[in-house]
Structures are given as structure tokens and as C-alpha cells.
Amino acid sequence: MRRAGLFSRARRPRAAGMRRSVRRLCLCLAVTLSLCAVMIWVRVGPLVRSYGEEMFYHLIVPGWVRWLLEPAPLIVTPREGFEPTTANDGGGALPTGVERWGDHLITRVSATPNVTLVHDFMTSEECAFVRALGRKMGMVSGTRFPVTNGVVDASAAGLYNYVYGLVRTSVGEYVDYKSLDDGDLARMVAIAKKVEAVTGLAVGNSEAPFVQHYEPSARFRAHYDMYNVDVTKPFPYRDNPRSLTLLAYLNDVGDGGGGETEFMLAKPRPVRVKAAEGAALIWGNCELEDVAPVDVGSGFKVNPSAGGGGGPKWDEGRCMGGAGPHGEVANSPGAMPGERTQWPCCVDRTRASLHQSRPVRKGHEKWTMTMWMHQRFTSESQVYAEELGYSRELAELVTS
């Protein structure tokens, strides 16, 4: 007698029932995954819309995909081919693209986004001082996500905190001016005043210096410095956004050590800047309002090409300028090459300012100090008014 095969008449009903069960299981799985996706999108969607798809693309896509699809990056090495001390003493011609500006030597790295490299921003002694200060501060990883509205509730903030912990794996902490002794305070404020001079913005516009330490494999994945916490209101709303960033390198990472600062959306190709002790990067985070360039002392002008009765006027000291109109309190020797002498108001985030710190490789470490400059005085200018040399009344006036 022949045995019944898998598809014999006797087994066909059983096989049909198994197929129906598999279909039901697949349907249930698809519905469950769809519901999960919807729930995640409800939480993450506002963040995606606020920050843009480009950031999430660079957060998720593997490096080998970018290697295949994107042009090779421009590699920039600070002080390559010259020594700033020799160049400033007239001991040699400057390489192409390097200019003297005030007390520093600079290179315009990119126009889109607007990135400038200062080859000799800090001395070795200043870098060693800030590194030692960082070791004493007890730096931590991640950050607490601020809850400011009903959309970003406590559970969503927990999710964002978790995600941010994956984005930034370095450790860091803000410098508390009030905790420093007189000697350390004087040295730290002197460095902050150098930031004021090189950016043209009063130090009161800045958050306190943020010191970071990257151990091997640590990184800071794709992100914007200008953030929008309150996604229920138009950006940049009235939140005195981070308009300019200064990132100072406090040590040499060395060849093959990684840790480059990369601007993935720079035009015409991505830009990677190697970490070199004493060098600093300055870049803009803002799309500025459409107004005509204005020279200091020439008064307010309007752009006739803009609509609405001559176009928008310069903001009367309420944007980037601290205590005086358009930054006149800063000790800047002048506008940086290609920059306006005065700053108009920020109206949106510059998408091209998306950047990351690439992973530091085994056997290396990286130290940085960041100062985020806002359009006007920050609330910290009230807290540290005495330490920074501002009266509290002045700080309260310009932050109100």
C-alpha cells in the first residue's frame, strides 16, 4: 500500500489549515508592526520635522553607503605647511588660502555652510589649563532634555534622552565661573574674551564654555547646534537661538586618530577638519534675514529689493549684538573676510550646518571646548554678570 505524501488527498485539509494559520500570523504581525511604527512616528515625527530628514539620514545610514554615494570629502589640516609664530613674525610666505586677521591666521574652509578655521586661537598653555579644568569638573555623558511644552512630555523627554545618549558618547560639562578661584577665573575669562574678539560678539551672548573629552570610539553623531525644543511654535520662535559656534581643539589627535569635525552637507563636497591643539573652528548656524549689508556707524539701511515698503530693517540691538547695536561692544578688529560688519536677525536654521565629530580611534583621545554664541545676551549673562564684567542691570536689560 502506497504511503500518503505531503500533498495527498488525506493531508490537503491539514495543509490548507496550516496555510491559513500562517497567513493570520503574518497579518497580525504586520498590523502590530504598523501600529508600533505609527506610535513611534507620533513621538519622533515632530522631531524629524523640526530637525529635517538630512540629519536622520546621516544618523542611520552606514558609512559605506555614504562612501558609495557621496563625493570624497575635503580634508583640512590646521597649520599644514607653516608655523603661525614664524608666519606672524614675517618669517615666511603664507600658504594659499591663509590670511592674517587681527592677531590670528585664518582660512575660510567653506562658504556653505560658513566655516572659518583659526589656526592659532589658543596657546598650548591655555589648552593644558582647560584640559586640567575639565578633569576636575567631573564630566558626564549625555544631557537632560528640557521639557518645555505639552508636546514634549516626560515620557517623550525620556526617549529623547536615550536617543541623545546614542548620538553623543563623549563626556562633557559646562564651566561654572562661580566655582573657580580667582586665578582660574581670570584665565578662563581671558579665553572667553578671545572668543569675543574673534567672533565679534560679546561674551555675554555666549553660553558658558563647554569642555568635552572623547575617549577611543567616542563620537558625536550628526546634529545641529541650533535646536528647537518647542516644536509647537514657528522656528526659531523667540528663543534667542545659537547663531554661531566656536569649537576649539585642546590637543593633537594625530594622524590616523580620527575625531575629525565633519560638515556632511558642505558644498561642493563634505569637509573634514582634523583636530590640532590650539586651532578653532567658527561656523554660522543661522539663515539671516534678507537685508543689505550695513557698515558700523552708517546707520540703519533697508534692502529696496525686498518687499513690504523697502524690506526688513536691522533689528535695533535685539539680535546679535549684546549691549550695543549689532555687536559694537565686542573687541573685534573688524568683520571677518566675506562677513557683514553687522549682524541681521536669524530667521531659520542653516541646514548645511549639520555636522558630526567622527569616532576617535584606539590609542587616541580628543579634548575640545565649545562656546555657543546666541543672538543676544543669554540668561547666563545675568548669572555670571559679575564674573564676566557686566552689571546685572545691563544683563537683565538686554535679555528681557
Automatic annotation (TrEMBL):
Residues 205-375 form the Fe2OG dioxygenase domain. Keywords: Iron, Metal-binding, Oxidoreductase. The keyword Ribonucleoprotein does not apply. PROSITE patterns: FE2OG_OXY. GO terms for cellular component: endoplasmic reticulum. InterPro entries: Oxoglu/Fe-dep_dioxygenase_dom, P4HA-like. The keyword Metal-binding applies. GO terms for molecular function: metal ion binding; procollagen-proline 4-dioxygenase activity. Belongs to the iron/ascorbate-dependent oxidoreductase family. This is Fe2OG dioxygenase domain-containing protein. The lineage of its organism: Eukaryota, Viridiplantae, Chlorophyta, Mamiellophyceae, Mamiellales.
